[in-house]
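Contributing new records

If you add data, match the layout below exactly. Sequence lines come first and carry their own label; structure lines follow with theirs. Keep one chain per record. Anything else will be rejected by the validation script.
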Amino acid sequence: MCRIWHAFLPIGLLPDHWAALPPDRRPFFCLRTAPKWPPVKSAVVLLSGGLDSMVCAGIARERGFSVVALTVDYNQRHRVELEAARRIASELTDRHIVLPLDLRAFGGSALTSDIEVPKDGVGDGIPVTYVPARNTIFLSLALGLAEASGARDLFIGVNALDYSGYPDCRPEFIAGFEQVANLATKAGVEGDPFIIHAPLQDMTKADIAREAQRLGLDAGLSHSCYDPQADGKHCGACDACRLRAKGFAEAGIPDPTVYA
């Protein structure tokens, strides 16, 4: 409890004068209790460094959460996004954790093994840039951090419309993981449930670009490319680059991305 002392001293009366006065003539001190403000709730946000996760962090902050960002360094080939995550975290978050977890030991994806990143346009089906169970793994890590730190809200920037090829970006996955979170944790089974927020779930990439602008975010801090150049420029041809460029174009917003 915070308490504030208010002293009412006659004009011109200095502390030394006050000490010299008889007790019955000393100024009156009033003890008042400061108002109690509700504690700020924390949320764990999965922050990859891409545009979607940046907007997701911005939305969490706008909703009044203290943002704890979790970035997973899974030894991805597009490691430039880790630096983007650090830039974004410095602007939007209260705490940033970069957690090493080498998924190249598993492989199975163009992002974690020596498989060529497609450059011939967004196709149908699940692309080779899908990392096996990545969002399940990442949300599990975020859940552990949330329970340990007392947070009960988790944010993830999955987007079903532009990334419908990824099974771990779909609404049924998010709903299913929330159920798992509340079945598999001490907090959940004791009646202190977790909520998984996916605020971009039904947005197009153009919607997300507009949301970044509405939130006043510098989209140029983010990085989306799956196969960046040695100097960090976006390749401009992979699925992530195509969708990013298409989103800004359809939104009618200047694209701050530097393409090769």
